[in-house]
Each structure stands twice: as structure tokens, then as C-alpha cells.
């Protein structure tokens, strides 16, 4: 590793809080705000059973409203803290801080957020980490701005120096950069000593250009949990089968195959003629639990069983996420974990 003081912790390591941003009428959620608020209430209720939730709010009115809705749902408000900050939208996995441990403190990596390659206005989201840092949100940390487009949903680490990503996403953001150069840059910034790339895997309705957190995720003990498709008639079948074969060919640092946990495939969800990107791989690991996106599908229970095997000793909590995928993301995309000691 380029700097032995630096380490990118895995998501299952101890956390201090989960960072989210409350949806409001000025975000892309406006047309279906009521449904989405119900998901947010369920999400904050699930988080606060185990740890703190830091909730970004656009102004005093949004805070008062969110506070009232959460309190009326009997959420543990002692574990909820509100942060006043500007944001365009609520996908904090991609606009929030990527946190490395730096000796006894922290380094907040503040990459450029371009609205997934310029698809959406993202000026306020791009300043989010800086705004939170200036507000003294984080303890014992320094912010490192990096003039390079990278979203948190595009990378996955095992906490021990191995990074997993999809070539489609990074090539889309940086078409002039070779795989070798991209690997070297990511390894340097993120304190990794190897980068594994997947060339296959996508979801219809996904506008992130195949973020890894919708497809394949590390789990403790050299394991990978991934979204499988077992329906040969489905348009995803060939691509996700090719991805599964790629994952099976990956090797751990000491040359062994990874332990593999394929997730079941939910039935297609169509909205206005458009297929939505429903993935069980978009789960969030928190202290003592895994929060799993549920889609009101028969496969929800089977997905929970797979996650219970991959994350033994953690409670699997289903959060209703069908309203989220209307905007092409799910549970992990909304959230950013903050390592223990950062807040």
C-alpha cells in the first residue's frame, strides 16, 4: 500500500452513524413524496434500533416536518441528529464522504460528484462533503478534495486492501484512461493494493452505468454476495450469468476462490412501461444488522435467508424499497456509513 497509515474500512466494521438526506418537494422525489417518506421513516426506524442516524435537511421547515414524522412513528429520537445543508438530491452513497482511517484519525475523500456523468444537476451535491466538513460535523478528520469523478456506489472494499468495481462505470466516467491507470489511481487514493474488475453485469433502469453496489458486494471471511438471475427468459439472464462466472473466477489474496452467495431474482417491476432496477445486492450493513431492500416480492424472504448466511450473527431487517427504484436506486444508494469515532 502507498501509505500504511491509511486504511479503507469494510462496511461491516464498527460504525458511529449512518448519513442520509431527507427527501423534500425540491428533490426529484416530488411527484411521489408520500410513498418515499414512508420508506425513509422505515429506514431511520431500522437504523436507530442499532445506532445513530445523521439526517441532512435542506431548511428548518424540512427538519420540523421530518422530526414530526419520525417522532410520530415512535423512532428513537435520541439517536437522530439533523444537519442543515444544501443538496440537490438524496443519493448520499454517491455524494457523501468516502472515509479512510488515517492513523488514529480519518481522511475524508471528497471526489467530484458529476450527477453520474452529467445526467443530472449536481452542483450542491458536489459541495456536500465540504459543507458538512465546514460545519464541523466530523471529528479528528481532514478533507482531501480529489478532482476525479467517482461515486461511493461504484467501489466496494473488503477492508483488507482489495477493491472491487465495474469497468463499465469507471470507463464511462473516464473514457481516456486505461484500466492500468485507473487501477493505479484508485489503489493510491483508496489505500488498496489490488483492484478487481467485473466486465459484466447491469440492471435495466439503472442510470449509474452499473454501480458495483447494485451487483456484487464483499462479505466477511472472503465472501462475495451477488445478484443472480435464474430466469433464462429474462433480458438480464446472459449478462448476470457472465458476471456470476467472472465472480467465480476471482481469487482471494492467497489464491483461493471466494465463498459465493447468489441472491434470488425478484419478478420484473414495470412502471409506466419502464422496467425498474430492483436488486437485493443494494443492502446496507450496520452495527448488528443488515438492512435489506424489500420489493413486496415472493423472493424477499429467500434474499433475507441468503444475507443471514453471508452475515452470520446479524439481524436481517427488511426495509420496503419499492418506492425508491422509481428513481433508479435503492437502500444502499441512499446511505453512507460513518466509521466508529468519526462523529
Automatic annotation (TrEMBL):
Gene3D superfamilies linked: L-arginine/glycine Amidinotransferase, Chain A
Record carries keyword Zinc: no
Keywords, ordered alphabetically: Hydrolase
Coiled coil residues, start to end: none
Keyword Hydrolase annotated: yes
Descriptive protein name: Agmatine/peptidylarginine deiminase
Organism for this UniProt entry: Luteimonas notoginsengisoli
